[in-house]
Amino acid sequence: MSEPRLRLDKVERRFRTEAGELPVLRGAELTLNAGEIVALVAPSGTGKSTLLHLAGLLERPDAGEVFIDGKAAGTLGDEARSGLRGRSIGFVYQFHHLLPEFTALENVVLPQMVNGASEQAAAARARELLAGFGLQGREDHRPGRLSGGEQQRVAIARALANRPGLLLADEPTGNLDVATSERVFAQLLEAVRGAGVAALIATHNPDLAARMDRVVTLREGRIVAG
């Protein structure tokens, strides 16, 4: 049996404040298998973003371990963690964070070239992804000339460009109107399921959460069934 795409083992995270130490995660545990899409639903301020940052190797836990495809990341140096993150993990945020000086195509090409792909191969992959999101004819537009929904679809294409095994998304449609959110989320689910990617998606929307394979939440710093 293959290793889980993501496994959090008794992960703890604490922050220092003027009032003292603030525990955010207290032994959080989660297993996410290939092809599984899990909704993370929890109130603001309970540690959702912290959990996603730890899962994405953007922060280190104070205790416990994060495993990506069975590989413990806590003991890895910064360069090794960065390489593992670039190869294995895709990120989608509430705000697209596209590079404004580059076109839609270039925004999807760049992370592939950073990961070692040739410009030709990266461009072919980028065009394929953008077409899958209905963005034919928009490839040469910079973000400022795209609608909010189009920008977020480019951001999702960018996140999938390096064929990650794991996708982490923090309110990926939270900045869009209801109708656009529905369309973009449907395309996100279709793309993720089609690629067999494991996905952990934070959302406040119960209707979107219900369309995923299961729902988890954070309660007193631990992950429990939603």
Automatic annotation (TrEMBL):
The keyword Membrane does not apply. One of its GO terms (molecular function) is ATP hydrolysis activity. Residues 6-226 form the ABC transporter domain. GO terms for biological process: lipoprotein localization to outer membrane; protein localization to outer membrane. The keyword ATP-binding applies. Pfam families: ABC_tran. One of its GO terms (cellular component) is plasma membrane. Signal peptide: none annotated. Keywords: ATP-binding, Nucleotide-binding, Transport. Belongs to the ABC transporter superfamily. This is ABC transporter ATP-binding protein. It comes from Teichococcus oryzae. The lineage of its organism: Bacteria, Pseudomonadati, Pseudomonadota, Alphaproteobacteria, Acetobacterales.
